Amino acid sequence: MKVKIQTMLGDIVVRLYDETPIHRDNFVKLVRDGYYDGTLFHRVIKDFMIQGGDPDSKGAPAGKTLGVGGPSYTLEAEIKDGLFHKRGALAAARQGDEVNPERRSSGSQFYIVWGQVYNEGQLRQFSKQLKMQKIQSAFNQLAAQHRDEIMQMRRERNRAGLQELQDKLAAEAEAQVTGEGLTEEQRTIYSTIGGTPHLDGQYTVFGEVEEGLHVVEMIQGSATGRGDRPIDDIEMKMSIID
């Protein structure tokens, strides 16, 4: 399935991934409903990404801070190892982990990655960080499975038991995560085409730009004001083309 995003700077065509059906189907429904028509790319950061999908941006006066609007629902995360933040990736925005530990996606807001090219030393560091994030995620899932046991130990102030269980779960989590944090494909892409590797494993990537990457480049280079909002509004209109 493909979607055309029309802007005054040109058109962007994105292909939606079948591997993320929840996000694909939701995006298609919103496009067909005309939800995005007249909204803005309301947040733009050079060498990083362009973000849109806030319904409150329709007709928003100059200088108004945007970025919190959306439908009354969020989407279950569909974070896949093989779908990553290369240049041109289409991903779902979301609230931070402190209020959204399940990493559920915004019902409408999205971003398109621009990013930058990284050297081998930088990628080694990102790879270590990503592996640690995966281990922490595995640990959190295991801890959730033992929640009742942990709560009972806390009530009993059984510090030795808690430490023993923590050590056991940490070892299990580390055993579950094999290999390096970044794959060879990711290393190659990030060292040649570019992207934002520090976002991998954190947000749902559900598509990629097939045409119009030069338009993304122009938008990400726009002059911005407060809240990273472009000084000159960049309005969009979307349609299904495939």
UniProtKB/TrEMBL annotation:
Gene Ontology MF: a single term: peptidyl-prolyl cis-trans isomerase activity
One of the protein's GO biological processes: protein folding
Limits of the PPIase cyclophilin-type domain: 9-236
Matching SUPFAM superfamilies: Cyclophilin-like
Catalytic activity: [protein]-peptidylproline (omega=180) = [protein]-peptidylproline (omega=0)
EC number, as in UniProt: 5.2.1.8
Assigned keywords, A-Z: Isomerase, Rotamase
Domain of life: Bacteria
Enzymatic class: isomerase
A Pfam family: Pro_isomerase
Cross-referenced InterPro entries: Cyclophilin-like_dom_sf, Cyclophilin-type_PPIase_CS, Cyclophilin-type_PPIase_dom, Cyclophilin_A-like
CDD domains membership: cyclophilin
PROSITE patterns: CSA_PPIASE_1 (PS00170), CSA_PPIASE_2 (PS50072)
Protein's UniProt keywords contain Isomerase: yes
Entry similarity comment: Belongs to the cyclophilin-type PPIase family.
Free-text function comment from the UniProt entry: PPIases accelerate the folding of proteins. It catalyzes the cis-trans isomerization of proline imidic peptide bonds in oligopeptides.
Name of the featured protein: Peptidyl-prolyl cis-trans isomerase
Organism field: Prevotella aff. ruminicola Tc2-24
